[in-house]
Amino acid sequence: MLSAPGDRGPEPARLLGFAWILFFSAGGELVARAASSPVPGSVLGLLAFVAALRAGIVRRERVAWAARALTSTMGLFFVPAAVLATADTAAARAAWAPIVAASLVSLALVMLVVGKLAEPRA
Amino acid sequence: MRDVALTLLALGATVGIYRAAAWAQRRLGWTALQPVATTTAVIVAALFALSLPTTVYVKRVELLSVLLGPSVVALGAGVERELPRLRGRAARVLSAVVAGAFVGVVSAVGVARLLGASPAIVATLAPKSTTTPIAMAIAERTGGLPPLAAAIVVLVGVVGAVVGPSLLRVAGVRDPFAWGLALGASSHGVGTARAVEEGETQAAASALGLALTGVVTSLVVPVVLGWL
Q1: Residue A23 to chain B, least CA–CA distance (Å)
Q2: With contacts defined as CB-CB under 8 Å, which chain A residues touch B164?
Q3: How many domains, chain A?
Q4: Same domain for A4 and A51?
Q5: Domain limits at B103?
Q6: CB < 8 Å to B18, chain A
Q7: What is the ipTM of this complex?
Q8: Is the Cβ–Cβ distance between B216 and B188 less than 8 Å?
Q9: Cα(B103)–Cα(A100) distance, integer angstroms
Q10: Which pLDDT tens digit goes with each residue over B146-189?
Q11: CA distance B3 to A47
């Protein structure tokens, strides 16, 4: 789960990759807070991180391992929120029909719209 | 000392259960057996058996929630790697994702309103196409319920990852890039995990769809909630 092929960097270099990602994450949160941005801090951090990689400010191979480690374990970081959601189910139970209907209709529409529009014209 | 030990124990147990759940999913080959859902079920059952309140557990594993943001930022590495592949089709991809995010928010809000859901539930459903940390952040800003938003996102992701490939086949979506983009845009992280099984192009396109949808949705939700 935590190995990226072609990445044989020594341990300190791998840790540096984590530091870069945490730095962009913190920066995104701070800017979102300061600017009361409608876009969440994590998304701002992602955009800045992409720009920094493009511009060569952050070297790709330095962050490859840390990025792979974090994204491949993303599911684990959802667990506390999912457990918390089971604690207070009153709202969900009271409105289960609109929740399920809206979720499924919207899911199918998004999938079809994006898939059909992105498909290259023959 | 006892405090530190309990925190480490809770973290260790969570990571261990998650790894076992991921292993079970691969071993059985059931996409529907999502590690997030399995792990949550096991932990909730364990807390119930031990008569421990969920809030005590959640406080102990706060570190995991803190790492949600960085895991979203980390997606940027995959997105950046995929940017050259966008040459010549950037406009089509971007318009597909923008249209998808818009349709996603409007349809979720519209159906929920039609069925008489409360404003809090509507605001909770609006960001449902995005990945959990983004959906929770959006729900928090718009008067929704972040934990319920997280649960809805997991539900949408699991259904999308399981049913999505058949839906896209029936709809005639054959291009691997379009396929991945659609899965990531509609089913976020769980859809991306499914796309990884398909191939490199599908996985990268899915990460791109997930990231772009997160950005566009966070901008669209406040606007649509203002209109409808």
Answers
A1: 9
A2: 111
A3: 2
A4: yes
A5: 72-227
A6: 75-76, 79
A7: 0.85
A8: no
A9: 17
A10: 888 988 988 898 889 889 999 999 999 999 999 999 999 999 87
A11: 38
